[in-house]
Fold this protein.
Amino acid sequence: MISTNNVTLSYGKRVLFKDVSIKFTPGNCYGLIGANGAGKSTFLKILSGEIQPDKGEISVGTRERIAVLRQDQFAFDEETVFNTVIMGHEKLYKIMAEREQIYSKGDFSEEDGIRSAELEAEFAEMNGYEAESEAAVLLNGLGIPEELRSKTMKELEAGEKVRVLLAQALFGNPDVLLLDEPTNHLDLKSIAWLEDFLYRFPNTVIVVSHDRHFLNQVCTHIADIDFNRIQVYVGNYDFWYQASQLNLKQKQDENRKITDKANELKEFIQRFSSNASKAKQATSRKKLLEKLTIEDMPVSSRKYPYVVFKPERACGDIILEIKDLCKSIDGLPVLNNLTLTVGKGDKIAFVGGNSLAKTTLFQILAGELEPDSGSFRWGVTITPAYFPKDHGDYFASEMNLIEWLGQFSPPTEGESFARGFLGRMLFSGEEALKMTSVLSGGEKVRCMLSRMMLSGANALLLDEPTNHLDLESITALNNGLISYSEVVLFASHDHEFVSTVANRIVEITPAGIIDRVMGFDEYLENGEIARLRDEMCHGHQELNL
């Protein structure tokens, strides 16, 4: 168990937390949510002891171990993958290292024998004999093949390093598990494995994630950071969202009724206060008015951008025809004879383990890359707009946001139009004068979405558009694409996003494509998911969870 008592933290005049007291109990998974900048990652660092609060204290159960998903990918570069995972349980790793050092001695003294017996007892108590098999199961579930496990961390790709660090956090059955964006760099199979692992995990989990489906699958509680405090709700993310919206509406309705009543009383008092026959009633109503209190509703840190795509014209009969498209990157085939016809109203999610294949396809369709062979053609009525995964080039020139958006605005519109548009995308006031060089990842994505909205396109190409966005912006984009009346081609690792937007699934595999007109959840149920669940159950039996 881990708890906080009157925790307060400020940076200058900005208060992140004020007198926060929460108890996180074993057997529960808490999803920590809040707007960008609300302090989610900071609060995890307070719980782990990495940051000290200005006031208050953190309490952890006696002899309980906290495990943290580390963000520094280079911290273990000289260690092997296997050792990196074991180092998640620091005490066990030290015992293993000392044990190995003693056993490697040529002259084994009586003192060494006594110490080795002590180490063996501690080693057994911490399930050290199962450490190697547990590490293997974790790495396998997270998609790290056996041939990589003896390599050093510096030999791995960035995405592989993140998976190993996640295995490190999960290793050794920690009492408290702190996870900051654990699904980053995971494919759908690994995310499903992690969901099942956390569902079965018997201790305390506190997780920050922008993946709504993941939060729905694993969370028993939601800890919502807003108004400089943290409110805990029982239930998953969907339950929190419905409950919080209902609570907000009830407060607004209650305040509206009080305001209406107050206005009615004021009108009566004004009309009859000088009327002798009504003076007594006016005085009575004045006293009643004084008793009415309108609850001040604090301004939430949670803000939703206005994401609405308005096509200038409807699509004609021919949308997009792709025939025998081939492309190799660095000598390796990425697209192999891809043939596809896109129809009216299609909202196609491109899925599959090879993200390069999806990105390459979008780049070809957007005219940024030439295919090696094959062809494609857009219909004459089609105006496509493209959201690339890597959009750094769009912000290479040094300009403020008003100037940047002006490049894509109608020529008849000026600064006031740009300011109004930027305001709806959460760049209000002085924020509209921000320079492009200082924008965060999420701010750049909102700018790119603004560019697409101004295009009036009737076919949208989006390559991982939810990366870097907070939950509020993801929800706004999600709803915008659901409401969009024309064609969408997109790739995303956000399960909720794909399942609520797509009406057709195209999986790109080494052998070709699998094309199904159905929703994402139905596709998973009819495809690999059953085998995947069997694999996960088998893996967790090995872990004795």
